[in-house]
Structures are given as structure tokens and as C-alpha cells.
Write a structure and sequence with these properties.
heterotrimer; A alpha/beta; B alpha+beta; C alpha/beta; B: alpha+beta; Butyryl-CoA Dehydrogenase, subunit A, domain 2; Butyryl-CoA Dehydrogenase, subunit A, domain 3; four-stranded antiparallel sheet; 12 helices; C: Rossmann fold; Rossmann fold; 2 domains; nine-stranded mixed sheet; five-stranded parallel sheet; 9 helices; 17 strands; 29% strand
Amino acid sequence: MDIVVCIRQVPEVTDAELEINKEGTEILKEDLVMDINEWDNYAVEEAVRIKEAHGGKVTVVTLGNEDSEDVLRTSLAMGADEAILINEEGFELSDAAAIAQGLYRAVRDLSFDLLLTGVQCSDDGWAQVGVILAEFLGLPYASLVVGIEINEGTMIVRRELESNTEEKLQIPIPAVLTIQTGINSPRYVSIMGIQKVRKIEIRGTDSEELGLSEEEIGLKGSSVASQKLSLPPVGEGAEILEGSLDEICEKTAQIVRDKGVI
Amino acid sequence: MDFTLSKEQRDIVRAARKFALGEFPDRALEFDREETFDLDLWRKACELGFVGVFIAPSYGGAGMGFLEHCLINEEFWAVDPGIGQAILSTTFGSELIGLFGSEDQKKMILPQLVSGQAIMGTAITEPDAGSDVTSATTTAAKEGNKWVINGNKMFATNGNIANYILVFCQTDPKNPTRHERYSFILVQTNTPGYTSKKITGKMGIRASDTAEIVLRNVRVPLANLVGKEGEGFHELMAFFNRTRLHICGQAVGLARAALEESIRHTKDRHQFGAPLASFQVTQFKIAEMATWVRAARNLYYEAAWLVDQGKIDHALISMAKWFSAEIAVRCVDEAVQIYGGYGYIDEFKVNRLYRAAKVLEIYEGTKEMEKIIISRTLLR
Amino acid sequence: MDEIMVLAEHRGGELRDITFEMLTMANKLGKENDIAVTAFFLGHEASDLSERLKGACDTILLMEDPELANYNADQYLMAMETVIKSRNPTLTLIGHTAMGMDLAPSMAARLSLPLATDCVEVNLAERRLDVLRQIYGGKINAHLTMKPSDQYLITLRPGSFDAEVEQGKSADAQTVPAPSWTDLRGRQFLGYLEAELEDVDIAAADILVSIGRGIGKPENIPLVQEFADSIGATLSCSRPVADEEWLPKSRQVGTSGKTVRPKIYIAFGISGAYQHQAGMKNADTIIAVNTDPRAPIFTIAHYGIVEDMLKVLPLLTEKFAK
């Protein structure tokens, strides 16, 4: 089973206070810790597990800038075998279709049985790239995958639906799957894994080599004409309880009691 | 000049941080309160290769430098000092075996430390011999083909859980030169006559084992001498020139954690209708802490990097050690001040950091001893 | 043709709420732009079910075929391609659901349609489309203006509009033939798997005390349990807590878990990603505790406490112990 995994480096925002640039087009990322997109981390782990069980190799691909090499190195240390970096600042402000186009150009000539990627990215949250890639590649696919069972030339996958329901599908190989969080427990990176990365050369490429013009990437290559960011209004709707911790708790207790359900 | 870490070093930092963040926070309070540790965490760290990265590949290690060992210490300590110490102190003494041990000793011990099969410790301090190591009175006398060891050791890290303890002994008590009276002898802790008692009530790093050791007619083969007979004191100094480096990593990790906790709290906590971060007194504290952390880190990076290049700068190592330890104490003092009452409760991380910090100024050379070393090189 | 087309979503013989939510929005846009609204229903022996859309659109377009009995990307793609190529709707709406996330991107790629996914607001004026999305886990609002196009495709976030069954319409039903299934890629639907037997039914609880990432570690759960017990509440959680297996999946509130409507919902350390909000925003009273004043949960909560949940919990438990 040769597997390609498309991954992305994103800022960690769970505990961060976000600010927006003057133009209103992007958040300020200087102070944010960059890491592999959570969904993609599960995808890398799943690929490595399938390789460990069935043999083959895992190639990770990312589209970003020089710093994005970090997520490739992390994936290699987790057990991937090869890595491709599409180092192209021109992709900034691309919509999902333009990003998928860049990835497609980089993977179309690779030979693989499976292409995995995360369901979505924690930054833009389009949840599109994997499925578009499947269409570009003309391959069967499934999104929101929470279980994979590989058989001869085919596989059984489970997709997560709403309301505690899953659906079971059979899909021929090769195929594209987008991976949902919780499908596995991603491993820690080991020192041995990190040392293994020394021997691997990360292949670099850019839009020129991929035959993409400026018109095809970035905002120009997207369906979006412009994007204006803003912070959602603080506590819109909620009445923020003020005072000392004790007063706040007293108020809360009163609110709960007033509902008369206790 | 380039002050940036290599890509591989950044990989190590990220890996160590993720492991520590994933495994330590859930257990930190429990270990601290109960003065216990779960050795499974140590085994996990060994499986991932975090323990003994400076040990040569021929003995199962990663063959990296002391700087890399420091980086792992920094990340572990930034999450929890007690657990960081419990895991990474298990190779304490291997530096000396690596420098001066025989091939047989290296082959026997080092691979076990890396793979999580054995723990080691080093016993130097005695009830009446602290900074003044040449007043240590534990003796090792030759009897036939054995060393017979007698004496008491204090504050020995891992003394109750280690498989091997390196004991700093007087082997030539009558030598007119005090510095030539000592040797290191390796003791397997299951040897008859070796007893240990857990020292409880430590102020901090309570997940880490500390022992009082009693050696009564402990007989070990003559081949257990590590290094040269009578060279123990000089070997000890060479040993400290390695181990003091990772203390710097510990200190900077702790100081950085104090800074990070302070930043988080000053943004969240509102007093007098404004976040603490909006008060200049808080802003200055944060600015000072950040400066101290940066300065200490640069100092230890340089010292460790030089050691890995084969250049031992005794004074620089001492500077890095006392300075990083002192700023760790200072940073976490400010952090607790910023936290106010909450910082006084052990459920809050800054409280554990506060209690852990002080030992950095004491173990592996008090800051006073470090300053003596530095001034000697300046005034000789 | 000037038409807004809504792809009806159904499963197990039930129309999904998102269908009516999209129709609510479509009718609003249709009225503003004087455009008719068509609901496109794909199924097998399901014309009765499609009839329920009658009061909420101008036209029901029904395509029936055994291959369409359950959602499958292969067949749906071909069906959408056929219908969109013949009708050229100005705007096509699909739910940002497990089905829509699976279908819309490949459809956009196949038909070269501009696509904006996971929209919470949509405006159409003079054939220009602009949308509001929430990015970075709901911490940032993004207003997008799409490039001019004759046709647009969007997926709508569940819960963004009310699900009105009666919208003062009376639709005509038309049928369209299914295409011949020539370009299928071999994906086969095998069946649905329901969640395992549950320990408690959180949907039946009057009071839910719900925890998120802010709990930090499983050892803190007894602290919450104690509080929940003091007010007779049931414990529930957001996705990260279930992913970590700190609480069973059956306790998860949100799109992939349960939808709940308790009298009181107290959210501790839950940031409030929309997937969570969609599962609890109809609770009578929502109280949220979070250290981040900008946490999206505060936008739907009735009362907010900007504090560390671990500081609040013991004190709150004490208030009820008296």
C-alpha cells in the first residue's frame, strides 16, 4: 500500500488571543505556535499504521512556505518515508480549490493506492481539499472517515454522520479518504524517528515547476474576490456576570434556582 | 553568528514538548502531593529515546550532544519539574562512565539506561560534606580482589530505585593532597550492605527519588573502580562540567514556564476593572522575566555548544549554572506574586514551580561554589 | 435560469432539519431577488416524503431511482450534474453536513462552480454573492465576496436559520429522469451503524452540566460530577472530551453526537465550536464558563462567566450544598 498524505501547517489558536492585520485580510501569526493541522496528524498516523500492517511507503506533501518543512519532518519522524514541499508564498489567500489544484499537480504523477488528508483545516475550515483532489484525480472517495479496513483491492470504511450514526461503505482502491479526528491516537515523535529524518531528502517544488501561473493561484486563482476579517463581538447575547468569584457564583446559583427545576 | 537551533534540534524540542504536554499535566499534582512517581512514564520516555541522548550509538544512545540533552530537560521542566527530574535523572552518573569508565563498564551499563532497563544515581554528598566534597569520609579499602566500602551518603538522587550507584569514596585517606584521596566506585544496589531510606518532605521536585544511603561492608570487585584511582576529585569536576549544563536547561525551562503562566494569568485576570496586563507594574515584571530567560538561555546554549565542540569552559559553565538557577527563582517568585492567593495553593502550576526552583541554586554546586570557580579564573 | 436550488437531505425516511433551514434562507433570498426556489429531492419510492416540502418552496423536483435509495457520492454527483447542466440555477444550496461536505466540493470541481462552504449568512444582490463564514474555530468572522459568476454553490452551516416547514408556499411537483449510471467509481453503500447502547440518555435530562477541553484532565471530572450531583444534573461533554475517551461518546453534545434541549445547560470550558452549538443552542437557559472572553460559546449563552472553571466549580458546589 503506497499512501500519499496531504498535510498543512496551521497556527495553534485554541488558547490564543487572535488579532487581525491592518488590511483585514489575515490574522497576525508572528506570536502563534505553528503545528500540523490536527486532522492531518490523524491522517499521517492512519497512513503509517496501514503501512506497518500492509507494507508500502508513505509520502507526505504540504503546500506552504519554508517553515512548513517542520510538519513534513514531524510526519517523517512519525514514520512517513518521503516528503514533498510545495514552497510557494503565492498560494496565500487561495481558496480551497486553488490549494487543491497545487496539491493535485504535485501528486498526479505519483503512484499510490491511497491518498489521505484531514477532513478540514483548523484555520479556514473549508473542508473541501480532499474531496476536490479526488475529483481532479478521477478517484472514488469518502469523507469524514472514522474507520478503515483494507481488503484485497478494496476497503471497508466507516464515515461519521450526524447524531451518533455512522455509515459503512465499500470503496475500491485506489481512492481518496478524508480523515476525521478520533480515528486513532497519533503517536509521539521519537528521537529515533527524528534521527531517521537525517537520511531523507525533502523534495522541494514550486508553482513554476508545477506549471501553475500566477493567475491560477492565490486570490487571483480563487473564486473569492475579497475577504474581510473581523473579530466576533464579545459576549454578544451573553450577560457576563461581574463581581468577585463568590458574588459570581452566588448569582449563578440564583439563576439556576430561579429556573425551578432543582 | 547564528543563534538559531538546527532543524533537528527544533524537531527534538517539539517532540519533547508534545510528549511532556501529553503525559505530565495529568499526573503532576498527584506525584507532588504523594511524593511518588510512576515508572511507566520513564519507560515511555526511554522507548521514545528521550533518555540519555548524549550516550554514544555504540552503547545504544542517539550520540547527540549535551545541548540536545539540555533542550529535552528544558521542555520537560517547563511542563513539570518533578516529572522531568524523575525521568531524566535516571542517567545521572552515566556522564562519568562515558568519560572515564572502562569499555566493560560502558557496555554493561549505558545500554540499560537508554533502553529503560536500569536506573543509575551518583552519591557524593555526605551528612558532613556538602560543597566541601574533600571532607567526604566514606572509604573504600582493598581487601583481596574486592573493594570494601563503608560510610553514609546524603541526598542521593535515585538512591532507592537505582540499579547502580556511583559512590564517591576515599581510597587513599593518607595522601597529603586532599584532592588525590578520592575515587569513584560503582555499586550495584542489590549488593549486601547497601541500604537506603527515602528522604521525604522535600520542598519541590517531589516526584524525584532522593535517598539517604548507608554502606556497611559493601564488597564489590576491584574492577568496579570507575576511572583512575586517586583521580576521583578531578573526575568529579569534569562530571559537573557536563551535568551542570542540564541544570541550566532545567532552570530555563522552569523560568520560561513561570513567564508563560504569568502572561496567561495577567491577560485573564481582571482587577480594578482592567486586566492585570494593563498595569505597568505587571508589564515591567513580564519584560524583566522575558529578558532573564533569554539571557540565561543564550548563556547555556553557548556553554553546552562549546562542550559538544570539545571545549570545556569551566567558568562559563559555572556562570550559566548560577545565573539560570537564580533567574529561575526570581521569575517564579514574580509569577507567584502575580497569581496572588492562587499561587499559594498547590493546585496551581506556579506553586509547584516555585517550590521546585530553589534546588537549582543548591544541587550540583551551590551558586556560591559556582562564583568561587568563576572568580578563581578571573583573579588567578 | 433564475432559480435557487436547494438539495433536500433525508435519511432513514426522515427529512433532515437542514433542508428546511436552507429553504428558509432560499426563500428570503428568492423574495429579495424575485427568484423562484426549487427543492431537489433524490430518492427511491420517496415521493410521499418529498411532498412534505410542498409548503416551503415553489417547485419540488423529484428524481427517483433504486440507486438513490441512500446517499452515495457517485450517484448524487451524476444526478446533480445532469440537473444543474440543464437548469443552470443561479444559486445551489447544500447543507454543510456529512452529506454536503462529501458532495459539494467534488461537484464544484466537476462543474467548475465557485463554492463557499460552511456559510452562516448569505447575501445575493444583482447576481453578486457574498457570505459570512466563521474561521479559526469560530474566533474570527470572514466576510467573503465571491467573484461574479452566473452560478454559485454554497454549503450552509446547520442551525444558521430556522427550520420552517410551512413558509406560505404551495409547490408544484415535477419529476426528472435519473441519468444512466455510466460514470460510477465503485463506492457502495453498505448500511448505517447506530451508536452503541448508552449508559444514560443525555437528551432526556432537564439539567446538563457539560464539559469541554477546559477540564484539562480526566482527574478533574469528579469535581464536575460533584457539582452535577449537587443540582441533580447529568454530565455531558463536547467532542474533544469524547475523542480523548474521558467520557463515553454517548455523552457528546453536538452534530456528531446528540442534540439536546434541557431547561438548563451549563457549559464548563467549552469554546463552543458550531458543531457543539448546533447540539445545544435551543436549551432554555445556557450558562457558559470560559477563561476566554471571546470564546464563541458566549455568543449563544444567556449568562457568561469569564473565569477558570476549576476555580468556579468548588465554590458553586458549595452554594448548593447549603
